[in-house]
Amino acid sequence: MEIKMNAMKLFVLPVLATALVMTGCASRKPAAPVSAANTPSTATTVSTEGLSEDAALNAKNLTGASAKGVTAANRAFLAKRVVHFDYDSSDLSTEDYQTLQAHAQFLIANANSRVALTGHTDERGTREYNMALGERRAKAVQSYLITNGVNPQQLEAVSYGKEMPINPGHNEAAWKENRRVEINYEAVPPLLK
User: Which domains does the chain show, CATH number per domain?
Assistant: First the structure.
């Protein structure tokens, strides 16, 4: 009887783990856009280059932006909302530290700000592997922000794996663009004017 239970555990646990990864975080829906009637008259300029279509729309439609924690020195870094990764890696690059530090400072100064960190991969590899890699990437950014003082309640790490490429190409240039974490403000984004 005990042998049967152990054999069943060996079968059921991997199946459950695979099912969790398969359904994973990709079922998260982006926040609904805000109507033009609710948009503040203060214009913000956020770089949406490198963001998926939904994330770019959300970045443009957020209300309640804050200038608190935005300085002349970190304005350009706050406008950057994408962190890129090397192939098959979830290690942060030194080029991204200033961007992440600027976002950490803003989030610390604005306790009502909320951010979704969406991890993405290129098309190579299985769906399951890429979902896990996208999650590791999002969690690497989340960990960096928390280590630098951001309240974990302000952050949500999500993986879309290879499901939402921003460049549909099948070459190294496209793959490089698709290996990313997007920093999507869902409440109280930086006011960049």
Answer: 26-187 (3.30.1330.60)
